[in-house]
Amino acid sequence: MKWTHVATGFALGFASAYIIQKKQSSLSSSDALQLVKQAFKQNGTIDGSWIQTTSKLHQAQGLTFEGYSGGIIRTVDNQQEHFEFFVDKSSGAIIDLKLIS
Predict the structure, then answer these.
(1) Which of 95, 70, 96, 93 is nearest to 18 (CA)?
(2) What is the pLDDT, as a whole number, of residue 32?
């Protein structure tokens, strides 16, 4: 897996989050999932995705964020990659991203 793909996805996610934040104060779970899917589509096809519809608290780097947990399955170079993510509800930023397999 190329980390440049993931970095590009983060950049697109942050840019999209900034635009959406200007339009509204907090994201719905479906809007958050769309942001993540847009970021991932830049580097491969998405085979599946899910997101929890209720927000929860998540701690990262000593800070607490309110947002949504979810997952994405995508294909890159004919191999499936499974990711879990956490999206901040107020900014739309991807706070946590883990490659599961």
Answers:
(1) 93
(2) 93
73: Cβ–Cβ under 8 A, 6 or more apart, which residues? 46, 47, 48, 49, 80, 81, 82, 83
Measure the CA–CA gap between 11 and 48, rounded to whole angstroms: 21
What is the average pLDDT value for the chain, to the nearest integer? 84
Q: Are 81 and 73 in contact (CB under 8 A)?
A: yes
What are the pLDDT digits (tens) for 26-37? Answer: 899 999 999 999
pTM: 0.72
- Contacts for 4 with CB less than 8 Å, ≥ 6 apart: none
Q: Of 54, 7, 4, 3, which Cα lies nearest the Cα of 28? A: 54
Q: Could you tell me the domains of the chain?
A: 3-99 (3.10.450)
